[in-house]
Fold this protein.
Amino acid sequence: MRTILALGIVTGALLVNGVTKAADVESGLQVGDYPGAFYVADVTGPSAGEKL
């Protein structure tokens, strides 16, 4: 019984630690940032196959 309780406490501590570290991750553009230039490939219409 003590082993199961100890395992549960350790697992809970690891989960809490993982959640707090996951909250620090910032992905994507931040406020005020602009995306870089990119090219679009036209796949339909009269310009099909060209990069715009």
